[in-house]
Design goal:
By secondary structure, the chain is α+β, with helices and mostly antiparallel strands. The chain contains nine helices and 24 strands. It folds into three domains: 103 residues, Pleckstrin-homology domain (PH domain)/Phosphotyrosine-binding domain (PTB) (PH-domain like, Roll); 129 residues, Probable inorganic polyphosphate/atp-NAD kinase, domain 1 (Rossmann fold), CATH 3.40.50; 181 residues, Sandwich (Tumour Suppressor Smad4). The protein has a seven-stranded antiparallel β-sheet. A seven-stranded antiparallel β-sheet has the order 13-12-24-21-15-17-16, covered by helices on one side. Strands 9-8-10-11 form a four-stranded parallel β-sheet, sandwiched between helices. Strand 12 and strand 13 form a beta hairpin. Helix 2 crosses helix 7, helix 3 packs parallel to helix 4 and helix 8 crosses helix 9. The longest helix is centred in the N-terminal third of the chain and has 17 residues.
Length: 440
Amino acid sequence: MEQQHLLSVSDEVFVNGGKSSLTLSVDGILQWLDGGLIRRCLSVEKEVLGFSKSGRLITIRALVQTAADRFCFGSSGEGSLTRKRFVFEAVTEDSLRNLCEKIQGYIDSLGRPKKLFIFVNPFGGRKSASKIFTNDIKPILEDANIEYTLQETRYQLHAKEVSCSLDLTKYDGIICVSGDGILVEVVNGLLERKDWAVALKVPLGVIPAGTGNGMIKSLLDSVNQPCTPAHATLAVVRGHKRSLDVATIWQGETTFFSVLMLAWGLVSDIDIESEKYRWMGSARIDFYALKRILRLRKYNGSICFVPGPGFEDVGESNDSCVDSMEPLIMPRQHGYQGPNIDLKNLNWRKIEGPFVSVWLHNVPWGAENTMAAPDAKVKAVILEPGSRTDDSMKEGIIDSDGEVLARGKGTYKCNLKSLMAYDKIQVVVDQGLATLFTPI
C-alpha cells in the first residue's frame, strides 16, 4: 500500500513539459509527476540541500543516491551520491511565494548549520584533502547555502592552536577535512579553553581525506553508508548530533585527550614505523603490517582495566589495581580538569604479558578497512609496558590517535622527545564529553 502523507502545501507547477501538483507533506516529502507521467519524490530532510528561485522558476538542489531505476530517490543505505537539480515553474506568483515559504520553513525547522569553520589538512594521506574539498565538499555546501571559513593547517598542532582561541559564537560547527589527526587536535584545543564546557557542545565533523579515517568510518558504517566525502558532508549538512566519549591519558602532570584509540605493540609499531613509507599513502599501513606480522615482536608488561558490559570476566580479578593508580594532576588552572569518576568500587581486572599488541578503542573502526572493536569498550586502564621478550635492551612505542606518547629504548626515532616516558600510563574515559555531527 502506498504511504499517505498529510499535506503542508500543494500548488500547480510546470515540470519537464508537463503540468503537475507539487506537494510538500508535513513530514517533509516533496512529490510531483515528472512530465505529467512519472511520480517522483524527495525527502527534504534526507536529500534536499537547498533551493533558489529566478522569476517563477524554483530550482531544488539535492544529493540523491545514484539509481537509474528509482522513481522516488533515497540516500539511506549503500550507494554513491549524486548532486541533482529539479526545476519547477510556478503557475502564479502566489503559488511561487507559497511553495518557497513552505519549503524554506521546513528546511529551517531542521536546525541545520548555517556557518562552519573548516580545517583542511593538505599533508595527510595522499595529500588530496584540498582537492577533495574543492571537488566534493565545496559544491555540496554551496548547494546547501552554508557559509564557511576555510583554514589550511600548516604544521603539526596548528589546528589545536586555532581551536584554543577561535571565536565559536560565529560558527555552528567545526569540520576537519583530513584523517583522524586534525579531529584529535581540535578536541585537545577545545579542552584547554576556559570555556571548555560550552566549547565541547559545538559539533565536530570529519570528512575522510587521510590515511585512517576511523572516526567517520565508524559513524557512517553504523547506518550502512560508505565512507565517502559526499556521505560525510551530507551528515554535516543534515545537522544531526551525538555525544562523543573522550579519554584522559596521563602520566604525572602530562596529559593527552584521546577520542579514538591507544596502541602499544604491533599496531603502534605499524602506525609509527610505517611513517618512513608515507610516500606510499594509505598503502604504507598494509605494506608495513605484512612486514611486521611476518616477524612478530612480543612485549613484557601488564594491563589493568575496568571492562565494559559483556566483558566483565576477561582477565583476572584484581582489586589492588586501583591502589597503584596515581592521581591526575592538571598543571593549568583553566580548561578541562579531567574526569570526575570514582574508580575504587569498579570491577578491576588484570592481564599479564607477554603481549603481541594492546589496542584500546573508543570507536569500532581503527581505519577504513579495520574493524578492530565492534562492541568492546573499557572505562579505565592502567598500562605498564615492558621490554621486548627477545631483547631486554629494546622497548616499544605507545601511541594514541596517531600521536606518539612514548618511545622506549631502541625504537624508531627514539632520540626524538616524546610527550611521556615509556612507563606506566593511565587512562580514564569520560562518557559523552564532546559532540559530533552524525548521519542519524
